[in-house]
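seq as requested:
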Amino acid sequence: MLKLSDLLRYSLYNTKDKFVPLEKEIKYLENYISLERIRLENQTRINFKSDIKNTHSKIAPMLFIVFVENGFKHLGQKNGAQSEVSVSISTDSDNNVTFLCSNTIDESQVITNNTMIEEGGIGLGNVRNRLQLLYPEQHTLQTKIEDGTYQVSLTIRAD
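struct tokens:
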């Protein structure tokens, strides 16, 4: 309940700011992922890793959560193996933030819904628009499907 309360508090109060400390955004993701761990129990392998050199860097709030939510929403099994979601956030000495998210997807979903997955829905479109407005020519966003895994790579220049 405390983690859910933290998620709601962050969504209500911290998203009013144009930029938030990276450490708060990471804590939000950790809380969300911990709730997914409870929901999925032993059905899914969930990995979260952060390697932050400057936790006081500021980024736009809730940029990453769209990708993480989609990772769990479109989660599937690859070749009958256990499903998996991996999330990684790191910074470098130039204050660039690199976010990586991948999740296994059903092979049948790739074949029948490839266009939908590649183009994305409303959430992905909104993130692309936000990135263009907030980080013009200061970000790279790539998505791809490879070997039954949907992968997102986002790099932004933090303040």
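The mean pLDDT is 85.
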